[in-house]
Structures are given as C-alpha cells and as structure tokens.
Amino acid sequence: MSDDRGQPHQHPVDPERVARARERLPSRDDAASVSSVLTLISDPTRSRVLYALDVAEELCVGDLALALEVNEDAVGYALRVLRTAGLVANRREGRVVYYRLAPDFPEPLLDSCLWRLVALTRSPSPDDGP
Amino acid sequence: MSDDRGQPHQHPVDPERVARARERLPSRDDAASVSSVLTLISDPTRSRVLYALDVAEELCVGDLALALEVNEDAVGYALRVLRTAGLVANRREGRVVYYRLAPDFPEPLLDSCLWRLVALTRSPSPDDGP
DNA sequence: CGCATACCCGGACGGACGTACGGACAACGA
DNA sequence: TCGTTGTCCGTACGTCCGTCCGGGTATGCG
Predict the structure, then answer these.
(1) What positions of strand D are covered by protein, i.e. any atom < 7 Å from a CB?
(2) Which of A5, A70, B8, B115 is the most exposed place for a label (fewest CB within 10 A)?
(3) Residue B130: its pLDDT value, please?
(4) Which residues from B are below 8 Å from A126, CB to CB?
C-alpha cells in the first residue's frame, strides 16, 4: 500500500451515484471524439476562420488572412488542420484556392456551439431568450 | 522588402466578401473568450468530469475518479482547472469534498455543446477513415 | 494521542501544439 | 520565355499543458 496514489479508494462514498454516472456517461471513445472536435475549434485562428467562412461563404487564403488580420502562415496552418479533419473544402481556380465550409459540416457545431458561445461569453444575461 | 511573408496581398480578390466578413466577425476578444472556454472543455478528463457531475449531481473526488476510471491526480488537476474557471463548486463535509456544477454554469455549454456533440459524433458516423 | 484517510499543493519531466523560415510548384502577365 | 504571384510543404524552435511524484494539512477513528 505504498503507491496507491493512482488508484482511488475502493469504498465509494456514494455507490449509487457512482453507478448512475458510470452507466449514463459517454464512453471513452465518444468523449475522445468530442474532445478532438472541440480541440479543433478551440484555437482562436481556426475558430475565426470558421466564423469568416460562415459569413462570407467562400474566401481564398489571402483574403482570409486579410479579413482576420493575421499572417498567411497562420491561416495556412489553420486551413491545413481543418482540411485534414474534413471541416473545410477547397476549390481551385487558376492559382487561387478558395475555401468554404465542408458540405457536411455539422451545423450544430456552428450554430449551437460557436455562435451561441460568442453571444454567451459576451452578454452573460441569463434571461436571454433563444 | 524580404519578410513580406507575414503580410498578405494588399489587393483582395473579393473585397466585398472580405468587408462583410470583417464587420460580422466576432472581435478578437470575443473569439479569445470562446476559445478559452472551449479549451476548458476540450480535455477528455475535464469534459467527462462535467458529464459525470451533470448526471450524478454531486460527487466527491474519490468517487469521481472511480466513476471515470482515472487516477485521483488527473481528477484533482481537472477539478482545479474547472474550479479556477468557476465552472464547478465544491462543498466540504468532514474530510470529504463534494463537487457539483457551478450554480451559474452556462446551460447551453452543457446541452447544446457537450451532449449534442456526443450524439453528433456517434450517430452519423462521419468516419474520416481512409 | 497516534495513525490512517481524503484531499490539496508545488516542482519537474515529457510530449504535443503553433509559429517562423526556407524552399518548391503551378499559373498568369508581359 | 522570364519574372512575379498565390499557395503548399517540410523542418526547427519555443512554449504551453497534463502527468507524475514528493510532501503537506486537516479530519475521523481507535
């Protein structure tokens, strides 16, 4: 009984609640999926790219950097990550590459997460009807 | 002029869309706030702590570690971060400390983000495999 | 009064993430 | 054809974050 540090006590204080939490809790895999998608949009540059694409519908890389007022490297990296995850799609016209939200972009992620959160963190008034 | 790398082109390809994005885009501060709260819940341990507290209403640290099947150190650190951010509240009874979601915990964050996302990433199986 | 429990704290370590930089490619204009 | 523009790629570096491990405090029990 020396390095029991990791293992918690084996006499649950409230076994009933523990059992209920265990059975209604998302699985580890589901939680990992949620975490990965939340990590994707938790970067300021990436989230602002998504905001901009949602507003403007379609933008090329240079204009995106211009709209966000960041350098093209940051936008390029953000787009690469989002593209790898399948959240944005690109269309090429000449030497210009236009980006837009992916056709199957999860709407709840945009509406219920990003836009709602920006309203939430801005005016924390609880009586703000939906 | 060698390090123009950072600055994007000064002739926008589509000035109209750039202007529209610029004016309807969340400010940098708002985006930073959203990012910070998303970062908070984008960690698997922290998000599962929130799930568990939402389901069980109230749990002590040891039971929390038991329910999540992680060691107490991880739970302790997650709780410290969440407590610092004001997302969870604690109540002390003897030597046991019970945690619950903060009274002013933003409901949309739980319902519209966490629970909706876990349903989203599970059902439509947008498998990003090969 | 002494020991075990439940939890917290602070420092050290390892890994992941985002940025900066050089180079490369294709496309357009002259 | 030649130089310029728009974008992508790979690498190296600095930084932040989560975990591990020591110790510390307070409560409850015998």
Answers:
(1) 5-9, 17-22, 26-28
(2) A5
(3) 37
(4) 104
Query: Is the Cβ–Cβ distance between A60 and A22 less than 8 Å?
Result: no
A68-104 pLDDT, tens digit per residue, is 999 999 999 999 999 999 999 999 999 999 999 999 9
Neighbour tally for B29: CB within 10 Å: 10
Which residues of chain A neighbour B8 with C-beta distances below 8 Å? 61-63, 65-66, 71-72, 75
pLDDT over threshold 80, residue B48: yes
CA-based nearest residue to A78, from A50, A97, A106, A38 = A50
CA distance A26 to B117: 11
CA distances from A21 to A77, A87, B11, B50, B63 (A): 39, 32, 56, 11, 10
Residues B17/A63, Cβ–Cβ less than 8 Å: yes
Residue type at A6 in one-letter notation: G
* CA atoms of A56 and B20, how far apart (whole Å): 7
Q: Give the C-alpha separation, B58 to A18, whole Å.
A: 10
Confidence bin at A120 (pLDDT 50/70/90): confident
Both tokens of B126, joined, read: 């947008």
Where are the domains positioned within chain A? 29-122
Confidence at residue B124, expressed as pLDDT on a 0 to 100 scale: 55
Q: Which positions ≥6 away from B31 have C-beta within 8 Å? A: A44, A47, A48, A51, A118
Q: Model-level pTM?
A: 0.89
CA B16 to chain centre: 34
CATH domain B29-122 topology: Arc Repressor Mutant, subunit A (1.10.10)
User: Is the Cβ of B112 closer than 8 Å to some Cβ of chain A?
Assistant: yes
